[in-house]
Specification:
The chain has 367 residues and is mainly alpha-helical. The chain folds into three domains: 117 residues, Dna Ligase, domain 1 (2-Layer Sandwich); 82 residues, no CATH class; 157 residues, no CATH class. The chain is 44% helix and 7% strand. The protein has 15 helices and six strands. Strands 1-2 form a two-stranded antiparallel sheet. It has a two-stranded antiparallel sheet with strand order 3-4. It has a two-stranded antiparallel ribbon with strand order 5-6. Helix 6 packs across helix 7. The N terminus is likely disordered.
Length: 367
Amino acid sequence: MSSSNVRARATIAVAIYTAVILVALGVAVWGVPGVLASGVQSRPPPKSAVPANAPTGVDLAPGSSAEQIVEQLERAGIASDGKALRALLDFAGLAPKLQAGRYRFTSDMPTAEIVRLLAAGPNRPQVVTFREGLRNEEIGDTLQKEGIASRADWDAALAAPRQATFLEGRPGGASLLGYLLPATYAFDEKTTAAGMVQSMLDAFGKQVTAEMTAAGRARGLTLHQIVTLASIVERETASAAERPLIAAVFLNRLAQDVPLQADPTVQFAVSRVPANLERFGYWKPRLTVGDLAIESPYNTYRNRGLPPGPIANPGLESIKAVVNPAAVDYLYFVASAACDRTHLFSSTLAVHNANVERFAASACARD
């Protein structure tokens, strides 16, 4: 393995010789600032010439020769000109100094960019933050985009049997949706999709305490019901201060056997139809009257009580809000006319209808 000084010198060598070599080979020059005849530096190019394709993680095995690495990158669809890559690696003296490990490339990456990444060495651990309220599919999409794991591997890892005490109370056939705790996670070249799923489950098991579960049971809720309601609370508001209020509204409705009428559950139901998913994505921005009538166990406009399971992965604060809601008698809420993503709460239908009219007359209702 080469030292950081060797890598630094190699990178400098690449920067110096890239233009000459690539022009001679008929390859486009990337990442090398141009200089005008007057000596004034031209407008600098982007920092990276990597195309906007999804990154691909490539593992270079220990002991691989430069020739084997070039062939591997060609097979992976990353190096479009193996001849140019071989020549540049040799000219820069990098061929015997390449390090094993995981690298992230994109398909048809410019040759100079490949050399730059190889000279820098394998990827160091990276961190990715999964925000609250994502579906498992959205997490998988992020992992694939970051070159950490493919969607196919992620989906397979989700489907594999898992052993955890907190998972035992789930209904038969329930997925892991709701139990992958949103947080910031670190990855390296050894990270697998299965390992990522386990890390998120482990985080859930540590953060969702026995005391929280007991507080939910005191309200007549199983852990699965807590997580289900928390996922709805998560999708309903972007305001941390409102989570206990939103949770209180839904708990009050459940106690009075009033339908939850939560729009995010309808969004989830709509996206379960493949044609809708392709057209509107995971969360349809604007629901229609027809959407509210869709036949689905997740449609809380048509069905009383909680849906069969979570609609997203809630954060810890939403789970806490469900087991410790605000002490209010609210039964309704609607988006505020202030257009600040907060809500107006009410205990009676008359006040709620007035709040709805205020929102309907606001600028945000017309956006």
